[in-house]
Amino acid sequence: MTICMPITDGDGLDASVSHHFGRAPAFAVYDPDAETVDVVDNDSHHHGGDKSPPNVVAETGAETLICGNLGGKAAERFDAMGIDVYCDADGTVGDAIEALRDGELTPVGPDDDGCDHEGGGHHDEDGGHGHGGGGHSHSDGDHDHDGDDHHDV
């Protein structure tokens, strides 16, 4: 089962998992059989490319996506692609893999509204607004951060 994660920096198991799925600069692709991590640049439309972030992940051959947060529209896209999604990852790629193995991550299905860290301020999954300072939660429907207010996924 190949696993993909959005990352902010670093490489290998020590790369930092990004809380901003669609705007992450790169994705770590973990092969558990070979115990290797490859880094793939995020060349989606958020970075001047013409693909959606879910398409970039699908092109890695990943069967599973682990992320901190994810918008509902992206969750629907991953379900349609047959890619399992788990949210609430934090720390490094190694930490996220361990959390998945330990059953500590939240599975996200097509009928979910995506996932976010309530109060964490990280809601920029695939085209929404990026709000840094903690304490923001946009679960009131004003900004659902699933790409509707900027880009289709």
Automatic annotation (TrEMBL):
<feature type="region of interest" description="Disordered">
    <location>
        <begin position="102"/>
        <end position="153"/>
    </location>
</feature>
<dbReference type="InterPro" id="IPR003731">
    <property type="entry name" value="Di-Nase_FeMo-co_biosynth"/>
</dbReference>
<feature type="compositionally biased region" description="Basic and acidic residues">
    <location>
        <begin position="116"/>
        <end position="129"/>
    </location>
</feature>
<feature type="domain" description="Dinitrogenase iron-molybdenum cofactor biosynthesis">
    <location>
        <begin position="14"/>
        <end position="101"/>
    </location>
</feature>
<dbReference type="InterPro" id="IPR033913">
    <property type="entry name" value="MTH1175_dom"/>
</dbReference>
<feature type="compositionally biased region" description="Basic and acidic residues">
    <location>
        <begin position="137"/>
        <end position="153"/>
    </location>
</feature>
<dbReference type="Pfam" id="PF02579">
    <property type="entry name" value="Nitro_FeMo-Co"/>
</dbReference>
<dbReference type="InterPro" id="IPR036105">
    <property type="entry name" value="DiNase_FeMo-co_biosyn_sf"/>
</dbReference>
<protein>
    <submittedName>
        <fullName>Dinitrogenase iron-molybdenum cofactor biosynthesis protein</fullName>
    </submittedName>
</protein>
